[in-house]
C-alpha cells in the first residue's frame, strides 16, 4: 500500500495552496477554481441557477434581483477560495486580455467594512476604455465603452481575483472586442444549422460549434532570452546565424521531453486543471525547444476564452521555471515556426457531430450536407478566411516557404474525393431507385473507411478534413482564435442559409421530395466547389501557378490580405448575419492595419539599434584587434609579414565592407521610415512599411550574420542561436 503523501502546489496562481495527494487524479483538481455547475449548485438558489441556464441556452436576460443573488453567491464562493478582488475579464482588440481589479472590500461608515459584490457590479462595468484600440468608432460616436457579463463562459479565480468573462462594447452598442462578434457568429451558425438539421431531425433545438486548438510554442531559458533585446521587444530574433545543427536530424519531434520542460508542463497542466482548461496532449514539436499543448475540444466561445487565458498562464508559470515562452509565429529564422491549428466541428444538442460520417444513409446525407456546405463556404470566402489569420508575425509562415501557404484550399482525402465524384454523376433531378441504392452503397460503404484512413493527412493543407472535423491550420500561434472562428462560423452560417433557401425552392416549386432536393443542390455545389479542393503539395511552385489559374487568392502580406475585410461582399455578409455592422468591420480593418504598421516600425527600430549600436561597434573593436595584430606582425617580419597575414588582411577588408553596408542600410531604413510616417493614407503607409522597409531587415541581417561568423565569440554581443535553441 502506498503511503499517503501530500504536497502542495505551493506556487499555485491561487493563493490558498491546493493540497494534492501525490499521484492523485487530475480529474479531482479539474475546475476547482471555476464557478461551474457544481459550485453554482452549492452557492446559488434554484431560481438563480435556472436563470443562468436559460441565459446560456436561450440568451435570455437576467433580472436585477436575480443578478444580486448570483453576485452574492459568486462572491461567497470566491472568498472561500481566497479571492479578495474581482474583475471583468475581456479581450480588447490588442489581442491580449484586459482586466481592472476592484476589491470586494467596502467601508460602511463608523469605521466598519464589509465584503460586497452587487448584481450590477457583476453585470456591467465601465472600464476606462480610452486607451484600447478602437479604430475610429469612438471618434465617430463619442462613445464610452462598457463591459457586460457573458454568462456562457463561467467565472474563474486567477491568483486572488475573481475573473468574470465579459464582452466589451461602446455605449452605442458597437463591439470593441473579439468576443462580441464571435458570440453573434456562433448565434447565427446555431440558427442556420438548426433549420437545416430539421430536414433530418425535427427535434434538434441547438447546434454548437466546437473548437479544439493546438498551441505550439518555444520554451527558452529566461536569462538567455532576456539577454536579447530583439526577443524582449519583438518576441522574435531579428538577427542570428543558423547554428551548425538545426532541425535537420529530426531528432526532436515526438522525442523525449527534456526534464526541465517536463517540470514546466506538469506545473502548467496543474494550473490549467484548476482553471478548468481541459489540457490533454503535450509533445515536442519539430524544432529544438519547440513544444505543443492541446486540450479536449470545447464549445467555441469557451475554447477561445480558455486559449486566451492559457497564453497568459503559460508566461506566468514559465517565470517560476526560469523560462520564457515564445508565442511568436517565427521566433527563429531557418527553424520551424509555430501555429495554432483550430479544429472545428458542429454538433447538435442531441449529441450528434454533424461532421462525423454516420452509419445510416440518412445520417450520411446529413453529414454530406454539412461537409459540402462547409467546403462551399470556404470556396466562396477563401480570401476572407485568409484575412482572418493575417498579421505581421504570421506573414513569416504564410507564403514564406513554411506551412501552410497563403493560398486557402481544402484537403478532404482520397475516399471523400471519390464519394463526391460519385455523387456528382447522379443524373439530374430525381434520383432513380438504382441511384439511390448506389448512393447508399457508396456513401455507407465508403465513408467509414476514411476514419481508418485518418493517417493520410496532408500537412501542407491550410484547411483539412480529418475524420470528424475540419482543421484550420493557418492560424498564428499568438493569435486570438476569436477572429478566425468568427469568420468561419459566419461563412458557414451564410452558406447554410443559402442552401436552405435553394432546397426549399425545389421542394415548394418543383414539388421535389426532400431527399432529392437536398441531393440535387449538393450535387450542384460539388460541381462549383472544385477550385478549392486540393490534395497535392501546398508548398510547391506548381500549386501557386495552378491556384492562380483556378482564381484563388494568394495574398502573401498582411496589408494585401486585409483589404477584403472591407469589401462590399464582406460588409454584406457580416451585415446580413448581424455579426458586424459597417462601422465595426471598418474599425477592425483600421486597427489591424495600424497594428501592422506599428509592429514593423518597432522591429525596424530594434534591428536598426542592434545593428548600429551593438554589432557595428563590436565589429570595429575586433577589426582593431586584427589591425593591431597585423601591425605587430609587420614590425616583427618586415616585408615578409604578408606571408603570415593574408587571411587577416582579407578579414579586415571584409569587416569594413559589412560595416559600411550595415551603416548605409540602416540610414536608408530610417529615411524610409521618416518618409512613410508622414503618409496619411493608411493603406499607402502599410504598403510602404511592408514593401520598402521590411525587406531591408533581410539585407541588414545578412551582413550582421556574416559578421557573427567572423568575430571573436567572446566579443559577440548577442546570445547565439546555438545557445537559445539547445539549452535545455
Ligand atoms: P493532431 O491534429 O495533432 O493529430 P488530434 O487530431 O488528435 O491532433 O486533435 C487535435 C485537436 O482536435 C484536439 O484539441 C482535439 O480535442 C480536437 N478535436 C477532436 N475532435 C474534434 C471535434 N469533433 N471538433 C473539434 N475539435 C476536435
Ligand atoms: Mg492538428
Task: Give the end-to-end Cα distance, rounded to a whole number of Å.
Answer: 36 Å
What is the number of helical segments per DSSP (H or I, 4+ residues)? 24
Which oligomerization state do the chains in this entry correspond to? single chain
Overall CATH architecture of the largest domain: 2-Layer Sandwich
Query: Which ranges are low-confidence, i.e. pLDDT below 50, for 5 or more consecutive residues?
Result: 1-11, 440-456
The small molecules bound here are: adenosine-5'-diphosphate, magnesium ion
Question: What is the name of the CATH topology of the largest domain?
Answer: Creatine Kinase, Chain A, domain 2
The named CATH superfamily of the largest domain? Glutamine synthetase/guanido kinase, catalytic domain
Work out the helicity level: 40-55%
**Rg estimate, integer Å:** 29 Å
Query: For the residues shown, what is the average pLDDT?
Result: 88
3D shape: globular
Overall number of strands: 19
Structural class: alpha+beta
Characteristics:
728 residues, Ubiquitin-like (UB roll), Creatine Kinase, Chain A, domain 2, Four Helix Bundle (Hemerythrin (Met), subunit A), 6-stranded mixed sheet, 51% helix, 13% strand, globular, binds adenosine-5'-diphosphate, binds magnesium ion
